[in-house]
């Protein structure tokens, strides 16, 4: 580390800046770097654009790149207070490539804080764009902590975000800012090298309704049949629900339009991929939560099949858990206990017997049995590791000020909630996984975020079904944009293959 690049950070924003810079240099760029204390002498007094004590500086071998510090300076006295964001009118850096050798999603890029431009100095350069502050703003969801805007489900609405208001939600602005920073570094040190970006498509399924709810009991079946006849005026629909209920009781699930798991996993495996299936562990707590129980024989068989085929099992935190850490922990323990009983490895792997796997796909009722110790989440039978590592919140409910801390305290390694339900794009500004920020601790967490870019409900409307080629093109653009920098994270529910063309659209986006 003696020859590592030195990072000099203003004392007033040490913790958030360290979090951002550590992620950029350690994980994204792979460039050795270390922090040093900030003094006027260390970065050569005043640089272009302001006082050295207010700026970030990157120093190496007698040269320096200074970075504008606009966001933290403006918000220092209003830190985490209910006040308006201190923003200039919308601006663009019109032609970045005129100054820097960099590839971006567009020739121009939005300027959130700071100003356009790179200024050459006697011993290096000064980047006028506030890269560090803008990245912190987007990754930490600063605006969600500040803003009181919420929808009917207490979610921060996409329409209230700066990304939607300024038209960059479908641009991974954090990743593009990192590319600008890298180009600025290379302008000062042409010999610098970095890690190569690489990502993959990650497909996940929130198991809200693994099967039609009408099959659970005669009363629900009567409601389902009546709804098909009276609301939808469909005799065929009523007949299909009766047939599914009858066949499901006999252990044959082929007629259930929601029980698509065998086909779903087959499509992923054909692409050389494995998915993550997030289960609600506590049925019926609210009318928004699930109507199934993990202890049901068919659900035990499903858990075993998912594990046997090497896919991941995670928690779909129930409706109120985004602000209830104790309930999150209980649900995680309950899911781990269910995996242990099924002999299922939650992290993916051949943990279940072939018989149990075949049963879930074909409709057999029994699950693989395994002795387990639910307290530590380790199965003592063939199931292996039943630790549940991942989570996604039901309805994508999220409180940026507290939910990350609750998830870490509950024992999760990562969360996959970070997207908007009806607006595809980059809520956190990045396609890369990153360690989350704790507003409670004012520091980084161990918990990581795998940001969600697209949920199928954002595209499966009447217009998409009328023009599937345009819908596929829009999804493919987002996928290819994400894969240039990191991962493409797609959520597609098992219950959303009910209309003609849905399955083909799913197959095509996997291969696009």
| Shape label | elongated
Number of domains: 3
Order of neighbouring strands in the sheet with most strands: 16-17-15-14-11-10-9-19-18
Give me the count of strands.
Answer: 19
- How many DSSP helices? 16
Supply database-style keywords:
512 residues, TIM Barrel, 9-stranded mixed β-sheet, 6-stranded mixed β-sheet, 19 strands, 16% strand
How is this fold's topology laid out?
Blueprint: E1 5-8, H1 14-29, E2 33-36, E3 56-60, E4 63-67, H2 71-75, E5 91-93, E6 109-111, E7 114-121, E8 124-129, H3 131-140, H4 142-146, H5 162-165, H6 173-188, E9 201-207, H7 218-230, H8 235-249, H9 261-270, E10 276-279, H10 297-308, E11 312-317, H11 325-342, H12 354-362, E12 372-373, E13 378-379, E14 390-393, H13 403-409, E15 414-415, E16 434-438, E17 443-449, E18 454-455, H14 462-466, H15 468-483, E19 488-491, H16 502-511
Parallel strand pairs: 1-2, 4-8, 9-10, 9-19, 10-11, 11-14, 14-15, 15-17, 18-19
Antiparallel strand pairs: 1-3, 3-4, 5-6, 7-8, 12-13, 16-17
Helix pairs in contact: 1-3, 3-6, 7-8, 10-11, 10-12, 11-13
Please summarize what this structure is:
This protein is α/β, with parallel strands linked by helices and 512 residues long. It has helices at 14-29, 71-75, 131-140, 142-146, 162-165, 173-188, 218-230, 235-249, 261-270, 297-308, 325-342, 354-362, 403-409, 462-466, 468-483, 502-511; strands at residues 5-8, 33-36, 56-60, 63-67, 91-93, 109-111, 114-121, 124-129, 201-207, 276-279, 312-317, 372-373, 378-379, 390-393, 414-415, 434-438, 443-449, 454-455, 488-491.
């Amino acid at each position: 580390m003696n020859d590592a690049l030195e990072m000099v950070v203003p004392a007033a924003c040490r913790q958030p800046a360290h979090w951002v810079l550590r992620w950029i240099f350690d994980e994204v760029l792979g460039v050795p770097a270390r922090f040093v204390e900030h003094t006027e002498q260390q970065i050569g007094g005043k640089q272009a654009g302001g006082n050295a004590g207010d700026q970030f500086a990157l120093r190496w071998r007698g040269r320096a790149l200074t970075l504008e510090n606009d966001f933290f300076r403006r918000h220092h006295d209003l830190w985490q207070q209910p006040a308006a964001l201190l923003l200039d009118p919308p601006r663009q850096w019109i032609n970045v490539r005129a100054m820097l050798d960099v590839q971006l999603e567009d020739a121009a890029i939005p300027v959130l804080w700071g100003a356009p431009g790179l200024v050459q100095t006697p011993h290096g350069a000064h980047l006028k764009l506030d890269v560090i502050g803008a990245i912190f703003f987007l990754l930490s969801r600063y605006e969600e902590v500040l803003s009181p805007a919420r929808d009917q489900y207490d979610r921060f609405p996409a329409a209230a975000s700066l990304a939607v208001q300024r038209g960059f939600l479908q641009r991974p602005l954090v990743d593009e800012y990192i590319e600008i920073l890298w180009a600025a570094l290379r302008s000062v040190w042409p010999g610098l090298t970095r890690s190569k970006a690489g990502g993959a498509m990650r497909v996940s399924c929130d198991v809200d309704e693994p099967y039609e709810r009408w099959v659970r009991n005669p009363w629900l079946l009567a409601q389902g049949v009546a709804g098909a006849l009276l609301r939808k005026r469909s005799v065929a629909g009523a007949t299909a629900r009766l047939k599914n209920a009858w066949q499901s009781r006999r252990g044959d699930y082929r007629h259930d339009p929601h029980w698509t798991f065998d086909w779903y996993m087959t499509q992923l495996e054909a692409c050389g991929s494995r998915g993550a299936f997030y289960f609600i562990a506590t049925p019926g707590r609210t009318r928004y939560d699930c109507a199934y129980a993990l202890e049901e024989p068919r659900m035990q068989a499903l858990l075993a099949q998912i594990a046997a085929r090497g896919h991941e099992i995670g928690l779909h935190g129930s409706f109120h858990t985004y602000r209830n850490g104790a309930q999150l922990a209980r649900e995680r323990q309950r899911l781990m206990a269910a995996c242990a009983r099924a002999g299922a490895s939650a992290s993916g792997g051949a943990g279940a017997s072939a018989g149990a796997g075949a049963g879930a796909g074909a409709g057999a009722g029994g699950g693989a049995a395994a002795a387990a110790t639910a307290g530590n989440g380790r199965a003592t039978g063939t199931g292996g590791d039943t630790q549940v590592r991942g989570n996604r919140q039901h309805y994508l409910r999220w409180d940026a000020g507290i939910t990350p801390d609750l998830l870490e305290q509950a024992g999760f390694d990562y969360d996959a909630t970070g997207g908007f339900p009806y607006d595809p794009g980059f809520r956190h500004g990045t396609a890369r996984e990153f360690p989350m920020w704790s507003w409670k601790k004012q520091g980084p967490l161990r918990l990581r975020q795998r940001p969600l870019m697209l949920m199928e409900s954002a595209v499966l409307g009447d217009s998409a079904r009328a023009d599937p080629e345009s819908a596929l093109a829009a999804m493919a653009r987002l996928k290819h944009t994400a894969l240039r920098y990191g991962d493409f994270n797609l959520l597609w529910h098992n219950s959303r293959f009910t209309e003609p063309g849905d399955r083909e659209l799913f197959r095509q986006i996997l291969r696009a």
